[in-house]
Amino acid sequence: MNLWKHTLLGLVAALSMSNVNAAPVELDRVAIIVNGGVILQSDIDSALKTVKVNASSNDQSLPEESVLRDQVREKLIIDTLQQQEAERIGVRIDDARLNDAIGNIAKQNNQTLEQLQASVSAQGLTYAEFREQVRKEMSVSEARNAMVRRRINILPAEVDTLAELLAQETNATVQYKISHIQLRFNDNQDKTQLEKQANELVEQLNSGADFSKMAYSYSKGPKALEGGNWGWMRKEEMPTIFADQIKMQNKGSIIGPFRSGVGFHILKIDDVKGLETVAVTEVNTRHILIKPTIILSDEGAKKQLEGFIEQIKAGKANFGDLAQQYSQDPGSAAQHGELGYQTPDLYVPEFKHQVETLPVGQISEPFKTVHGWHIVEVLDRREVDRTDSALKNKAYGILFNRKFNEEAGAWIQELRASAFVEELKGDQDEN
Questions:
Q1: Of 273, 308, 333, at which residue does a domain stop?
Q2: Span 280-299, mean pLDDT?
Q3: How many domains does the chain have?
Q4: Predicted model pTM
Q5: Confidence of residue 402 (pLDDT cuts 50, 70, 90)
Q6: Cα angle vertex 288, ends 284, 292, to 5°?
Q7: Based on the number of CB atoms within 10 Å of its own CB, is 374 exposed (0-12), middle (13-18) or buried (19 or more)?
Q8: Proportion of the chain above pLDDT 90, given as a percent
Q9: Is the pLDDT of residue 103 over 80?
Q10: 164 belongs to a structural domain
């Protein structure tokens, strides 16, 4: 989630206000102590000016000065705490990612990079200062994302329930072309044997057997002599036992066997109209994770991974064996470092960048994420039709966003409650 982007869009304007009406001032002083850091009086004054100018340009009314100053101080305290948390967990924004972010800011403001640099400079801010402000905002956002994600628990039942509600809206216009095989119960027949036959037919169908031929040969349903073909129907037009089984599956899906009062049924989705298809790229990767400790520094972790790369390239060691022996990601280490086929969006930004850009079969240089130091190898890529899971993905995204906003607020409150904050006298009396 690139939750920092919305903040960055207004960053040019906000930063430009920090030098409004610049004039000689007295030496700066510490206004607030926050854990091991400080907020300067100039920070408060600049932020206050920014709020006032932005409010004026947007014709917004503001509360009285003392209330506004309190709000500004609290905002700076929260920002400082989040920055400290980013430093604590080792978030680092490299120049490549920073350049991409600044390029996006320029694009959103309909500017070239040169025009953005000029507008920053025209407001009395150096481009280097601007870059570091963007880097800081990105690191804070990434730390918040990493910490809050760990607090979010979404149950499969929640996703299914919301997906069903979304499906009801979507199904109003979706049409399915379906085929059907019915294996009918006979008097004194062993129902277990009929179920076994149904399962065997499904295995053959999933292996490529022709559905219409199977329907002619085995089906006792009303469309058996048409090869089981029911044609195009919306769910509301189908028999209830069909509609209950169709959950936004994609073209070619075999559904069943499922049981009714008359026997066992097998459906095939021959085609779909009105349902947006979703294709995604999945990447199969393996990695080795080394976590820095009090004893093992960042540099030491990096050198250890560089040593692994040299051993692999020299043919003295195998990536999978090294992962199983040394990787500190227990889940993947047991699988020789393999993470399986996943969409890159599931990974933290640095890891996502590597798996998206590495050629198949190439091992990355060591890189750091909030989890530690990694090397990663891309084993394979594949295109996957995810139409059948698109609604569940959408439902998950909706639930995640809801819970993220709730948990982010709780996390910030906890940071604030556990912090040492001392506001020094003098700030309240200044304008």
A1: 273
A2: 92
A3: 3
A4: 0.46
A5: confident
A6: 140
A7: buried
A8: 35
A9: yes
A10: no
